[in-house]
Specification:
single chain; 686 residues; alpha+beta; Rossmann fold; eight-stranded mixed sheet; five-stranded mixed sheet; 37 strands; 15% helix; 34% strand; hydrolase; S9 family peptidase; Peptidase_S9_cat; WD40; serine protease
């Protein structure tokens, strides 16, 4: 789902090896193992052809990660009349398929190593030119970049091989066809300068913290002239773009630096003249989605962050002629994402995540009213619509299967792919949405319960509570099996798994998501524990065999739980911000903790009261600490502080770090190891 609270030390603390897992394979009715999970494919980048007949999408190895080195573009008829099949495949990465406006070509990103072409090949050998204000020389036509960088390629739908369109010195990160199909706008960061390369060769590898270097730039590629020019001015980082319907004007999402904090919190939507390179009026501050021109070119849609907060997206529409900015659906009881205009411009379409499931909805651009178009049985993060507005397809993770492509029609959805066919032979846990009330203020809280295969209701069973990251994120009634989502693995090993969405989570509107401000470990913790009490009372959870774990904010809550009672017999603290003062001062997104707790110097006592690392004397629960060794979001020193503090007091604790890994682990071996250790830790203590 949406990324949670996302370089530090590269260390490895020696721990006992996890217990080996040797059981009947999942395909024969046995439990789901980490090895089974790591064989699953994920999918994203749903792209429906303009005529609505064909869907392209990206299939990648590794569930729930952003760094898979194996990605391919697949295709399936939108009516499901034929099975899915590979469409664009190489030995590495092929992703982000985008149809040309006439539907005759597909452009995509790839790091394939085929040589840039030879004589007689149409559409090749583009001359890469920078704007006059750049100090870099022209790239030689047809010169392939070194190191397998990701470049823009194109392929005819009617048949024929893929050919490259760019040979930029750095990766192409995003692109957009012009409405007439004659140009493509693309984004690529600055490459190292000659001076930087020379300094590196001399061993001068010092890094100036927060220095604004290597901006993401906007380029325009002219398909007829076979040239590409950098058009964005110096001093701005471009992260998204859209063309006006007449192709004359563009709108961009920009920030003053390429830093992740500015990207999250200080991006803005601006008008832009691609001919002169001049940035015009700002149309939306604190932009998190967009820009999207309306089909008639009179309005621009986007979504802003409702500060203070982390995600809480608020749709906005800007009228170019009048300058009026209209707020839409600020009190909608869900999280609206994937915003786009309906093809006729009479409404906006979006995904709405409510409680624990997704919907496709329509938003009135004048009144802001939200109308349900289809309820989805699970969680979706991507969808697309054809040029006439007749066909909708979506990526959807359902309770019994990982993400597939689904066709949305008549208020519901049906799958048209089966990407992980082996899962049909597995016996996963039963997934259901549950709700309960907070014992102090009566607020209704939602969550997900996964029970073991064949579970008999009313049988008290060992239970693990897994807390999601964020706080503004949420668990979903869909597939729950990846390196980070442990529910199905644990359930098939005999555990009940409880996944609560306490206040601070998505799914019940912006006010609910912001309700954890200044109160981590307060009413959110009460929400969680009231859910545990509900499951004990229902005879589902065995009160003497409770475990808790999670990643990021989930790691924080697990640390909080073991410093506030002895109900849990084992805990896993994954990349948790357990000490909020140093966290606020060293994270790469400093606006995040400030949004919840305010300026550090003015609120140190409040930060400390919410820091489980300050309460280690209260811990009597065995704790496993897991952390990425190059985590800049929640630096590794925070996990080490919790672990070392426990060991100094003679507490039972182990710690594992994963060298080179950021906040969200990428390496398959590390992802597998996390699952093995989590299962072994709970097995040995529950």
């Amino acid at each position: 789902m949406r990324a949670a609270l996302r370089f530090g030390l590269a260390l490895m603390v020696a721990v006992a090896a996890p217990v080996a897992i040797a059981q009947q394979p999942a395909g024969k009715g046995g439990p789901i193992t980490p090895a089974d999970i790591m064989k699953l494919d994920d999918m994203r980048d749903v792209a429906l052809s303009p005529d609505g007949r064909t869907v392209l999408f990206t299939v990648q190895r590794q569930m729930a990660t952003f760094g898979s080195p194996h990605q391919a573009i697949w295709t399936v008829p939108s009516d499901g009349s034929a099975p899915e099949r590979p469409f664009i495949v190489s030995g590495g990465i092929d992703n982000s398929p985008r149809w040309s406006p006439d539907g005759k070509w597909v452009a995509f990103l790839s790091n394939r190593s085929e040589p840039l072409y030879g004589e007689g090949q149409p559409g090749l050998s583009f001359a890469m030119q920078r704007s006059a204000d750049s100090d870099s020389a022209r790239e030689r036509p047809g010169e392939a970049p070194e190191g397998g960088s990701i470049q823009l390629w194109i392929m005819p739908v009617s048949g024929g091989g893929a050919v490259p369109l760019t040979a930029l010195p750095a990766d192409v990160t995003d692109f957009a066809w012009s409405p007439d199909g004659k140009r493509i706008a693309l984004l690529s960061p600055d490459s190292p300068t000659a001076e930087e390369k020379a300094a590196k060769a001399r061993g001068e590898d010092e890094v100036v913290v927060d220095a604004a270097t290597h901006f993401s730039r906007l380029w325009i590629l002219d398909l007829n002239a076979k040239t590409a020019h950098r058009v964005s001015p110096d001093g701005v980082n471009v992260s998204a773009m859209d063309w006006s319907p007449d192709g004359v004007t563009m709108a961009l999402r920009v920030a003053d630096t390429p830093g992740i904090n500015d990207y999250f919190y200080h991006s803005r939507l601006v008008l832009f003249d691609p001919e002169t390179g001049r940035i015009g009026k700002t149309v939306l501050e604190h932009a998190a989605e967009g820009p999207f021109f309306s089909p008639d070119g009179t309005r621009i849609a986007g979504a802003s962050i409702l500060l203070p907060g982390f995600i809480s997206l608020a749709p906005r529409v800007y009228d170019i002629k009048t300058g009026k900015l209209t707020s839409l659906a600020d009190h909608h009881p869900g999280l609206l994402t994937g915003l786009r205009w309906a093809p006729k411009g009479d409404g906006l379409l979006a995904l709405s995540f409510e409680k624990t499931r997704s919907k496709v909805v329509r938003i009135d651009p004048a009144q802001g009213t939200v109308t349900d178009l289809a309820a989805l049985d699970g969680e979706s993060s991507d969808f697309d619509i054809d040029a006439d507005g007749d066909t909708i397809v979506a990526q959807l993770s359902s309770p019994a299967r990982p993400s597939d492509v689904w066709r949305v029609a008549d208020g519901s959805a049906k799958p048209i792919t089966r990407l992980n066919a082996e899962v049909a032979d597995w016996k996963p846990g039963q997934v259901e949405q549950v709700s309960w009330k907070n014992s102090k203020d009566g607020k209704t809280i939602y969550g997900v319960l996964v029970t073991p295969p064949g579970y008999v209701p009313g049988t008290p069973t060992k239970m693990v509570v897994q807390i999601h990251g964020g706080p503004e994120w949420a668990w979903w009634s869909g597939w729950l099996g990846s390196w980070h989502e442990w529910a199905q693995m644990l359930a098939t090993h005999g555990y009940v798994v409880f996944l609560p969405n306490p206040r601070g989570s998505d799914g019940q509107g912006a006010d609910f998501a912001r309700a954890a401000r200044g109160d981590w470990g307060g009413m959110d913790y009460r929400d969680v524990m009231d859910g545990v009490d509900m499951l004990v009372k229902r005879g589902i959870a065995d009160p003497d065999r409770l475990g808790i774990g999670g990643w990021s904010y989930g790691g924080f809550m697990s640390a909080w739980a073991v410093t506030h009672g002895d109900r849990f017999k084992a805990a896993v603290v994954g990349a948790g911000p357990v000490d909020l003062v140093p966290f606020a001062r060293i994270t790469d997104t400093p606006d995040f903790p400030l949004g919840y707790y305010g300026p550090v110097s003015d609120n140190i006592a409040v930060y400390d009261r919410s820091s489980p690392a300050r309460m280690l004397d209260r811990v009597h629960t065995p704790v496993l600490v897991l952390h990425g060794g190059a985590d800049t979001r929640v630096p590794t020193t925070l996990g080490l502080e919790f672990y070392r503090g426990l060991k100094m007091q003679g507490k039972e604790a182990q710690m594992v770090t994963y060298p080179g890994e950021p906040h969200w682990l990428h390496d398959p071996a590390h992802q597998k190891d996390v699952q093995r250790r989590v299962l072994a830790w709970f097995d040995s203590h529950l």
